[in-house]
Design brief:
InterPro entries: DUF1468 (IPR009936)
Strand content: under 5%
Number of domains: 2
Order of helices and strands: HHHHH
Protein name: Tripartite tricarboxylate transporter TctB family protein
Keywords: Membrane, Transmembrane, Transmembrane helix
Radius of gyration: 20 Å
Structural class: mainly alpha
Helix content: 55-70%
Number of strands: 0
Number of helices: 5
Largest sheet: none
Length: 153
C-alpha cells in the first residue's frame, strides 16, 4: 500500500508545526543571542517547507522510472544495524581517539554503508568532522573529547 503524497506531506507539515511551536515555547537563555528555541524552530520550518513541496507534488515529474534491480545478497538487510554499531563505536572510542578521528571513521563507514564510492567517502570523512567540530565546539559550545588529535582552534 502506498501512501498519497498529500497525506505524507500533510503529516510532515503537522510535525514541523509541532516542532516549531514547541521550540517557540522554550525559555530564552540570558546573555545568549541564540537560545534553545533556534534549532527546533529551524527544523520545524524545514519540515513544513518539505511537507508543502511533497504535498504539492513539486519534483515528481523529475523522477525517472526505476529499472528492476538484481536481488540483494542475504546480508544486505544487516545494513540496518550500521547506525547502532556506529553509535556503540562512538561511545567506546570517542574518549581515547577524540571527536575528530572518531567522527571521521563514522562518516567514512556510514558513507560506505549507504553505497558511496571511495572517491566520495574519503573526502567526506576528511571534510565533515572538522566542520561538525567547528559547529558544535565553537558555535554551540558543546565540549567534545580531544583524544589523540586536538583541534587547531
Amino acid at each position: 500500500m502506498q501512501i498519497s503524497d498529500r497525506v505524507s506531506g500533510g503529516v510532515l507539515v503537522v510535525l514541523g508545526s509541532l516542532a516549531a511551536w514547541g521550540g517557540s515555547r522554550l525559555p530564552a537563555v540570558p546573555g545568549q543571542d541564540v537560545g534553545p528555541a533556534a534549532f527546533p524552530m529551524l527544523i520545524g520550518s524545514g519540515l513544513i517547507g518539505c511537507g508543502v513541496l511533497i504535498a504539492l507534488g513539486i519534483g515528481r515529474s523529475f523522477e525517472a522510472p526505476e529499472e528492476p534491480k538484481a536481488p540483494h545478497p542475504w546480508w544486505y538487510g544487516l545494513r540496518a544495524l550500521v547506525p547502532f554499531a556506529l553509535l556503540l563505536f562512538y561511545m567506546l572510542a570517542s574518549e581515547p581517539l577524540g571527536f575528530l578521528l572518531t567522527a571521521a571513521v563514522i562518516v567514512f563507514a556510514a558513507a560506505l554503508a549507504l553505497g558511496a564510492r571511495l572517491s566520495l567517502a574519503v573526502p567526506l570523512a576528511l571534510v565533515a568532522p572538522p566542520l561538525m567540530h567547528l559547529a558544535f565546539y565553537k558555535l554551540l559550545r558543546v565540549p567534545l573529547p580531544e583524544g589523540l588529535l586536538a583541534a587547531p582552534w
